[in-house]
Request: fold
Amino acid sequence: MSSRLTERLLVRKNHRLRWAAIPIAASLVLVLAGCSQAQLHGYLPGFIEGEPAVTNQTERISGLWTTSWIVLMIVGLITWGLTIWAVVVYRRRKGQTGLPVQLRYNMPIEIFYTVVPLILVVGFFAFTARDQSEIEARFDEPEVKVQVIGKQWAWDFNYIDEDVYTAGIQGQPDVEGPAGSLVQSEIPTLVLPVGKKVELTLDARDVIHSFWVVDFLYKKDMIPGKTNYMSIIPERIGTYSGKCAELCGEYHSLMLFKVEVVSEADYESYIDSLRAAGNEGQLGLEYERNQNLPGTSAPTEQEGN
Reply:
């Protein structure tokens, strides 16, 4: 008789859980359906309702970021829930004294809190490695090649195939504007055509810099003596802020630049304007300060004298 009663109670409990799951699932679907583009992408910059992503990689980056946070929030809710449950259920009642019965070993729990974090770490590593390999892959045949040279405290841009360049200066204070503002027209500008495979060659003349376009959701270090690459396809016309993301000296905060993604016709017009201004040729690394540093070999007898 008792077994039948137990079965009935279990059936009723399962029915209740099913009915409780329906409104929870419906609420979750409703909340997700009402999310804006900013919320769906974890409030990362660069996303506008009804507009394409800034580059071909921003969706992938935001997906990794948002999914990671969802998993971590679930883990946090479970952890806090269990902690609060243990505090409430096993709290000391009135009249109780001394310590409760101590639990020394519980193999299932120990296996659980060892295996689950291991699965999470391996999962995060696997997804990060997968996305990183896609983001870091270079184009076999890029349509536009630009060499970006970082220097204290500005940027030079060589348009390699077009054989023209722009030489930048660090951000200049705008004496006629609000306090702390800069002359926007003098900030170095990198112009890129929309929808084209762009390969950026990243070099540094002096110290370590970092090329960071905020809305691209990606940055890359620029290390003296080492060339790095960034391959992207700009997918939305607009102007985007860039800056050095590596502390590089006194005026690091003024090492700013802009990226203008334009139509192919406007890109060709810009290249023609650089030629008309006499900016033909390429800026090299001959002014790299590190070539003047002393060598690391032992001095010879002649050098000693």
